[in-house]
Amino acid sequence: MSSHMDMRFGKPGTETHIATGLTVRRGKSRFSLPSPSPGVIPYVMMNERPSALMQVCSLKRSFHGVRALSGASLDVRSGTITALIGPNGAGKTTAFNCISGVVPPEAGTVVFDGKDITGLTPDRIHAHGVVRSFQIARGFPTLTVLETLLLHGETQPGEHMLTALFRPGTARAREAELVDRAHHVAHRLKLGHVLENLTNALSGGQKKLLEIGRALMAQPRMILLDEPVAGVNPTLASEIAGRIQQLRDEDDLTFLIVEHDMDIVARICDPVIVMSNGTTLMQGSFDEIASDARVQDAYLGKRA
């Protein structure tokens, strides 16, 4: 029996799959599956949560005849770190792409802070205060960390020829403000000592932090993080998780996170939304979704 993700912990001689609650005693044939919790809350439609900062309803998207999203709905309340999890192929990244404007949905709506942003281009969605990161942090290899952060700063009058020619003081003043902000962001993320390093010289974990820093330079209200700790050692993964919590608490930011590391999800995310086969399966606390039979079936397959 295997799962799409490595989610094991427990006492010596046992393995417990966090996302399912399945405990297996190695060397023995006995195992048990918990019954679904009677209080588990199934997915709640967006119109029942009027306080949501972002409301996504019935998104659909196909690629070459293959249905990636089949009416996915979810909402994200302000000030939360909401996780979006599910087995490989569940539609999580496609949902992210539709929400952020990378690909337009074929049907459904995305509403942010009461404004319909469905199908807008990424730059227009960005202007509304929604910024995303990508699972693979590429960046510009010939730019330094400082230059990369400055590139993503908001409102740069020096980019306009007339302002640069006739109001250079305005451009220089704004550039000084952005430099100060870039230093502030870098030091918050413990990147201050590598500000002058080229981005291609950073470690994998530092590149993940730079992705978060890039998003912060835009002064967003909501950040979509696509696997922020993927490929990162456990110590740095824990540090990144702590930084996300700190940003939520101190900057009043809202996060929607796709993540496969269930230890991180259990530690910082509430609520957790589970996707399967292109649609939303359920929503609840981590303990609720971990003990739900539908989630177990989605990850491990139905029991005979």
- The helix tally amounts to 10
Shape: globular
Largest sheet: 6 strands, mixed
What distance lies between the first and last C-alpha atoms, to the nearest angstrom? Answer: 13 Å
| Unreliable parts | 1-50
Proportion of residues in extended strands: 15-25%
Mean pLDDT: 81
Helix fraction? 25-40%
Query: What strand line-up does the widest sheet have?
Result: 10-11-12-7-13-14
Give the beta-strand count.
14
Element pattern in H and E:
EEEEEEEHEEHEHHHHEHEHEEHH
Specify Rg, calculated over alpha carbons. Answer: 21 Å
Class per helix and strand makeup: alpha/beta
Short description:
This protein has helices at residues 92-100, 122-127, 145-151, 161-166, 168-188, 204-217, 234-251, 262-268, 286-290, 293-300, and strands spanning 8-9, 14-17, 22-25, 31-32, 52-63, 66-77, 81-85, 107-112, 115-116, 130-132, 222-226, 254-258, 272-276, 279-284.
